Structures are given as structure tokens and as C-alpha cells.
Amino acid sequence: MLVNLHVKNIALIQEVKLELHNNLNLFTGETGAGKSMLIDSIQFAIGNRTSKNIIRKGEQSAYVCLTFKNINENVISFLQDNNIIYENAEISIERTLFITGRTVFKINGVGATRQSVKEVSSLLIDIHGQHEPQSLLEASKHCALLDSFGTQKFLELKNEYQQIYKQWYSVKQQLENNDIDDRKRLQLKDMLSFQINEIESCDLKPNEEDELKSQYEVLAHAEKILIQCQKAYNCIDGNEEAGVTTLVGRASQNIQDVSHISSELLELYNQLTSIEAMLQDVSYDLRRYVDNIEYSPEKLTEVQERLDIIYKLKQKYGNSIEEILDYQQICQKELDELLSHETNKEELEKSLFEFEKKLTKLGDELTSQRQGIANNIEKSIDLHLHDLQMPYAHFKVQIISVDYFSKNGKDEVEFLIQTNLGEDFHPLSKIASGGEISRVMLAIKTVLVLGDTIGTVIFDEIDTGISGVAAQKVGEKLATIAQKRQVICITHLPQIAVMADAHYLIEKNVIENYTQTSLKLLMSLQIEQELCRLMGGIVTKNTLESAKELKDLASLFKQNLV
């Protein structure tokens, strides 16, 4: 359950540190005081996307930290699987959003991804927003909601079905993509064959272009290279007396005659000998290079033509020989697929048939189990609806088998309701009263919440469209849920607020020319005064007595729950 909430620089909240009660936490306040900011802060922390406009004006970042204790086994398994250290069955989730747009998530002080935070949050907290009743009106969501009441065995069956469905859908898409007419297939085949043959006929080699460019440079300047190299050779080792090698040799001989006199002369002699040897090597290499130069206009033309072929292929198929060869392989693969189209189509059709057999079998099992789930929740939801001042209401799950496969099976599911005696069942979308929608949603959520393992449940303004005895019953229902789950609720009604185990007031004040939203835990007399405000706004002796009587009745109800 959520034991601590720390909010800093979120909208009008400068900083709030809140310790929450284990059972029913209720928040009230004037319209516009910022009650929604509390839920927004929790949504912010658990990874919901938001704008940096949520950061309080003038601040550089916004920060929220949620601390949970007595976490369930599913959360512990998540922490162990992700190598996150934890102590005393406790977990903290932090998020900081900077004015630059950068977001930092942490789980137990260690950096985490948004996906990890959302995944673990789904095991810790369940938020039912003020607009959620409208989602009950969408029949497309009813199947998933019905399935959420299923047992672990049912969920495993559904998961198996969905895995097969993904494979079936993939094969079906392949068949549809391959279903092109023969003319287009032949056109594509001819085009691919031409491109493959054109590339193959050129017999390209990796790095060939660089080698050809190098050859071209030498051949294009061959005459100049020959002249300059010959001059260099004559200078080094020509027949003339002034050749460098000859002169160095003579110098070496002259020093050799006196090299024994001192170590310095010996060192000079060795250097001259080394230089003479190096010059002889250079002379040899230069001569060999000159001998190997092929001054051939025909060869130059041949290299140029080969480069032209490569350039033309590059314009069509890629920026390099490697890319051209890769493109050839892609074309060959597509051509192979076309050539094996008929065989491949037969195999795909066979696979599709096998998958459809499995989906039919699993889908029938899902339908059968859904009927059982529907029967159970119809009875449970009816009981809760009667408790919520809808004595003649009956909830019905309509399951219609269809002749096609969907990701949820072979069923279309829609929730129906009979609100008055003698009426027919109608879709939930036909309910005119917002109060009835809220109560139906609460009845469904009550059955769902009491059946799962999530420790904290949030109801944001569950009292939309209700009043009087119905509001009292909603308050009692929340108190009942709070016996087994921690409940956080925002309300405008005294009949609900009076059920609180911890009652917090959300206020908006102007401090030093800045508007701030603050929260405070109310004590006995403060609670009675807030109940007076909720009942009519005026605190008098009579309204205080009414508030106290309301509190006494709520206390008596909660005592009987224990």
C-alpha cells in the first residue's frame, strides 16, 4: 500500500509530504482548489506522459516520490527479476521532470526506464479516473473487462490463444501480401531477372573500384613518371661520374683508410657505408619500378571503360560496389520468393488451416469459461447494485459467438442493464443518468478490486451525478472495499467524506503573491466543520449537530464491518 507521497513543484503545489492511512483516505476541498493535482501527481510518478508545463512556474524541475510498504509477491518477483534491491517489503518510485524536458525515473533509488516503472506500478496501484465511467459505455472494451475477472487458469488459456492468434494473423498477412495478379508477378520477375543479370555480367569485385582508380592515375601520367624517374635514377646511379652512389662510395673509401685511427672516424665510415647501401636499394627499386610501368593508351582506355561501367551501376543500384552486390542479393531473394510462390502459398495455406483448428478449439474453451465468469459476476454485481440504491437493477453479460477470429477469441461481449422492473435489458450506453453510470461502474470495480492483489485503489470523484441515499451507499461501498484494500478517493459529498479513516483538506492560498495548493489532515472538529461546508457551506450549531450525527452513523456502520 501507498504509505508516503512526496510532491514538489507540481502545478500549484510547492511541496507536500503526506502520510496515508492504510484504509480509506478521502480528500475534499473547494472547486478549483487543486484536488485533481493529487491524482495528477501520482499519475506523473507512475510514468504517464505529461508536458513540462506541469512544472511550477519559476522552478527548474518537478518531483514526485511514492513509497509503498507490504508489497505483494508479484511486486517482489518483479524486483528480483530486474535485480533491484529491496528491504522490508518496501519499494519507492521517483520521477523528476526537468524544464529541459529530460525525465529521470528511479525504483528504490536506482535509475529505471518508463516501461519498468509503468510495469511495476500496475502491480501496486489501480486508478479509476473521473472520466472512466464513460469507458463502460464502449462495448469494444467489455470483453477485456469481463476477462479481467477470470481465474489464473483462464488467463493462461487466453494467453495461449493470443499467441496462436499472432501466428495465424502473420500467416494470413503473408498470404494477402502474396496475393498479387499474374501480370504484376511476371513484370516483377522480368525486372528482377534483368537487374540481377546486369550486375552479374559485370563480375564486380570488392575494392575493385579503388584499384582501378589507382591504375588509372598511373597510366594517365605514365610518360611524365618515366621521365622523372629516369632523371632521378641518373642522379643516384647514372653512368656519369657525378652519380650520388659513386660519390658516396668514394667518400667511404677515403674515410676507410683512416677509420682505424679514432672511433669517431670509424662511426663516420659506418654511416657512409650504410648510406651507400641504402642508395643502392633505392636505385634498384627505382629501376624496377620504371621497368614495370606500362605506357599503354589501350590499357588506359580499358581501365576508363571499366570505371564507366561501375559508375553506371552505382547510379542505378548503390553508392558503392558493396551496396550494388547487396542489392543484387536482395533482388535474388525476391526473385526466389516469386519463383517459389506456388509452393510457399500451399505451405502458408496449410499452416493457416492448422492455426484455425487450434484457434477454434481454444476459442470454444474461452467462450465456455466466459459464460461461467459472466454468471458469477452478474450475481455479484447485482448485489452491489442493490446496495447502491438500484433495487430493481439487473446486470447481464451478453456473449455472442461470431464466425471470425479476434485477439480476444470468437466472442462479442456487451454489458447490458435493466434499471427498472418490467423493462428490457439495454446496453449501458442507453443509461441516461450519470449517477446510474457511476454506480454501475463502482459495482463492477468493487467486484474486480476485491478479486485482485493490488494493494491501493484510487477513485477520482466517484460521486458524479449522485446524491442523497445513493451517495451514502457509495460511501459505505468504499468503506467496505477499504477493509481489504487501501482506498484513496476525492469527493464533494459529505455522505462519502464521513466514511474516511483519514480526511484531508485541499486548499488554495495566496502566499507572497504566489498561489499555492496545500493539504492538511483534519482532526475531529475540523472534520465536522468540513462536513458542514460540504452539506451547505454554513457552519452553525444545527449543521454541526447534523455533521456529528452523520459521523456517528458512519462509525457505527464501520464497526459492523469489522
Write out key terms for the chains shown.
alpha/beta, elongated, six-stranded mixed beta sheet, 15 strands, six-stranded antiparallel beta sheet, single chain
Q: How would you classify the helix and strand content by structural class?
A: alpha/beta
Oligomer: single chain
List unreliable stretches of 5+ residues. none
**Helix content estimate:** 40-55%
What's the total count of β strands? Answer: 15
In percent, how much strand structure appears in the residues? Answer: 15-25%
Number of continuous helical runs: 18
Return the average pLDDT rounded to an integer.
86
The shape is elongated
Could you tell me the radius of gyration in angstroms?
42 Å
- Largest beta sheet, briefly? 6 strands, antiparallel
Strand order of the largest sheet: 2-1-4-5-6-7
Tell me the distance between the termini.
20 Å
